[in-house]
Design brief:
With 299 residues, this protein is of the alpha+beta class. It is 59% helix and 14% strand.
């Protein structure tokens, strides 16, 4: 009997122990929940303080709270609170896509900044290349100009049997953009600009410049269109003599109506019209024929 009673008491104590354990667990859970709520409230309070400081310049800890406000002070405080609420409302709702949009725009901005940097660097590099090319071009141009100038003077004197001429660059300008001025003094005359020369003198002056260039930069072909038209017989002879010398390195194609020039050519090409409205091309090698340009009129 005593054993049975002891067992009953033991079971009762066990039940009470389990109840106490459950109560303790519930209390611990409640304490944890309250602790979490407190932590969350502290975080919200901190966020509110920071927001008031950054957005409105209000530092909560520095505000002195009076125990009781007068009616006028309470009215002013309410007006200020309403004004602040209106400002907050004007901000509108929170855009949930704002962060994503910000990241996209930032990515785009970073890309454009990188592109701008690349373009700026490429621009500076291109400027360096342009400066280098311009410097090289100036050196090459001045060297070619001086050589052409020297040959132009020599050939001018040969064609005019005396006199002198010169080439000059416009002063005060970049040599790559400067004009080239031609001055000439045929034998027995004063120095004149190219525009003051006669037609024949202009033609000889242009030929002197052309052949002066060919002395510096020879060309395998050259076409001359009636350059001998304004020349008299004496000048024709000097022109043909010069042409013969240069024909060693250059093949000349001349369009001419001058018989003396035709006589000096190795090949003749002509256009005739045996029938009205029908043109025909003719070609002759002068070495195959014995022609007398002094008695026959070209057709």
């Amino acid at each position: 009997e005593e054993a049975r009673v002891a067992n009953d008491e033991l079971r009762e104590l066990d039940i009470q122990s389990r109840d106490l354990t459950n109560s303790i667990s519930e209390l611990e859970k409640l304490v944890h929940e309250r602790s979490m709520e407190k932590h969350e409230q502290e975080m919200q309070a901190g966020w509110i303080k920071e927001n008031l400081r950054t957005e409105y310049g209000i530092i909560i800890d520095e505000i002195e709270i009076e125990e009781k406000l007068t009616g006028e002070e309470e009215r002013k405080a309410q007006i200020k609170l309403d004004r602040l609420k209106t400002r907050v409302a004007d901000f509108g709702g929170i855009n949930p896509e704002a962060e994503t949009q910000y990241e996209e725009e930032k990515k785009r901005l970073d890309f454009l900044i990188a592109q701008h940097k690349d373009l700026t660097e490429a621009k500076e590099e291109l400027k360096k290349v342009i400066r280098k090319l311009n410097n090289t071009a100036r050196q090459e141009f001045l060297q070619t100009f001086e050589e052409t100038r020297r040959h132009f003077r020599e050939i001018f004197t040969e064609l005019f049997e005396g006199g002198e001429a010169d080439l000059n660059l416009t002063e005060g300008e970049d040599v790559l953009e400067a004009d080239i001025e031609i001055s000439a003094r045929p034998r027995g005359k004063r120095f004149l600009s190219i525009n003051q020369l006669s037609a024949g003198e202009k033609a000889l002056c242009a030929l002197a410049l052309l052949f002066g260039l060919y002395k510096v930069k020879p060309s395998p072909f050259c076409m001359l269109d009636e350059v001998d038209a304004p020349l008299d017989e004496a000048n024709i002879s000097r022109f043909l003599k010069l042409l013969k010398r240069f024909s060693i390195d250059t093949q000349f194609i001349l369009i001419t109506h001058n018989k003396r020039t035709m006589e000096a050519a190795d090949y003749l090409y002509g256009i005739t019209m045996e029938e009205e409205g029908v043109s025909k091309a003719l070609s002759l090698r002068k070495s195959d024929l014995k022609l007398d340009f002094g008695t026959a009129e070209p057709r």
